[in-house]
Write a structure and sequence with these properties.
Rossmann fold
């Protein structure tokens, strides 16, 4: 016999169904709004007009204009390279004698002059494949990686910091002593700690805020140079 005032068992089932439908509608609405906003973005339009796959290519062009990262014949590791905008810029600026290796867990359409490795660069097999193509070490390590945003600020910042640390760890292992590193970093959370860690590994560090970055974004970039050599001669 049911108790008076008891909530029917089916109530929670229908409530969960209703909740899931509403959340799906919100995600779809956000996705449509993002696409609409992106389509109107002048940076996106400019990148497409120049033949680049992403607006991020314009950021790299801006960075290189001030930092002079690339040079003819450079060996470049593009970590998290898909869809390939940064690889396009690197291939063009390093010339026919350059060697560009991009790695990502998602597919990337071929880019002229770029060798693509499908896999997670934090795994030794993928990292070794990238390094092997570049001859064992690289002149430039670059990463424009960002996590999929969950909406939970603390979690998103922690995941972004983990990606940055992974790129810096790759550089610490494979970067030539006079090489340079370009890594996306978000302000807040572990920003100060990442800056300290980067300073322990590299002799030179600059923090960049770009004109091409969307208004209100906490996105910055670390440009680090001259990997420090331990007293025993190891990396």
């Amino acid at each position: 016999m049911k108790k008076r005032g008891a909530i029917p068992g089916g109530f929670f089932r229908y409530w969960r169904m209703f909740y899931n439908i509403r959340m799906s509608e919100r995600r779809i609405a956000k996705s449509l709004l993002w696409r609409k906003t992106r389509a109107k973005d002048p940076q996106v339009r400019a990148a497409r007009a120049l033949g680049y796959r992403s607006r991020a290519a314009l950021k790299l062009i801006e960075i290189d204009g001030g930092e002079k990262l690339f040079f003819g014949g450079a060996r470049v590791a593009d970590l998290g390279g898909a869809p390939g905008g940064w690889s396009q810029v690197a291939a063009a600026r390093c010339g026919k004698n350059g060697r560009i290796a991009a790695a990502d867990i998602v597919p990337m359409a071929p880019v002229a002059g770029v060798h693509f490795v499908r896999g997670d660069f934090t795994e030794s097999e993928t990292a070794a494949a990238v390094a092997a193509y570049l001859g064992g070490e690289t002149d430039i390590v670059m990463s424009d990686m960002a996590p999929n945003i969950s909406g939970v600020a603390a979690a998103d910042q922690a995941r972004a910091a983990a990606l940055a640390r992974a790129a810096l760890a790759f550089a610490a292992k494979y970067l030539a002593p006079d090489g340079r590193v370009l890594v996306k970093i978000f302000q807040g959370g572990e920003f100060s700690e990442l800056r300290r860690e980067c300073g322990q590994t590299f002799a030179g560090l600059r923090i960049l805020h770009l004109r091409a970055t969307r208004r209100g974004s906490r996105e910055t970039y670390f440009v680090a140079r001259r990997r420090k050599i331990a007293q025993n001669g190891t990396k």
